[in-house]
Amino acid sequence: MQTPSVPLSRPGYGSAGSAASIPSMGLLAAVAACFSKYIQFSGRSRRAEYWYWTLFTLLLQVGAAYALSVTMGQQAAGNAYSLLTLLLLLPGLAVLVRRLHDTDRSGWWFLLPLTGIGAFVLLVWLCQEGTNGTNRFGARTT
User: Fold this and answer.
1) d(C-alpha 124, C-alpha 142), whole Å
2) Residue 138's beta-bridge partner residues?
3) Which of 32, 69, 115, 139 is an S-S bond match for 77, by CB 3.0 to 4.6 Å?
4) Residue 3: CA count within 13 A, CB half-sphere
5) Sign of CA dihedral 142, 33, 42, 95
6) What is d(CA 102, CA 43) in angstroms, rounded to the nearest whole number?
7) What's the whole-model pTM score?
8) What is the DSSP string of 55-67?
9) Exposure pattern of 59-86 as b/e (b: 16+ CB <10 Å)?
């Protein structure tokens, strides 16, 4: 008995069908999306949105730490840097929760790194492709 073959170009199978229906997202679009959904913990976020946000916050914090320490001195720079970190905390947490929703997991899994080894599991989940179509957290984002 032969196993029927499924073409990879058919929608819903492989990466060719799913990638063609979702437009790409750049750094500025991802940052704008995260700031527009500042404290929105419902819904879903694509991999590009999460990782571009992570890249943006990393570059911003490194640049700000250097620029503030050079211009303001160590104590004032520490206070300004703490304020910047607080401003970026909520949208970062919100995009993390929405990213977990995209992989059809509860947002409470963001606490997994508190176990130590859970950080590696969380990293794998954040790198996975989201659920195709609609899941319990809503429709796939574009």
Assistant:
1) 22
2) 135
3) 69
4) 3
5) positive
6) 8
7) 0.79
8) HHHHHHHHHHHHH
9) eeeeeebeebeeeeeeeebeebbeebee
Query: Would 63 be classed as within a structural domain?
Result: yes
pLDDT one-digit tens code per residue, 35-47: 999 889 999 999 9
Q: Is residue 72 part of a domain?
A: yes
72: domain range? 24-127
- Residue 37 resides in a domain: yes
Q: Is residue 78 part of a domain?
A: yes
pLDDT tens per residue, range 80-92:
889 999 999 999 9
CA dist 45 and 91 (Å) reads 12
Overall size of the chain counted in residues = 142
Residue 40: closest CA among 117, 119, 141: 141
The Cα 35–Cα 137 span in angstroms is: 20
Contact, 18 vs 2, CB < 8 A? Answer: no
Cα-Cα end-to-end distance for the chain: 41
Task: Return the DSSP state at 135.
Answer: B
Looking at the 3D structure of the chain, how many domains does it have?
1
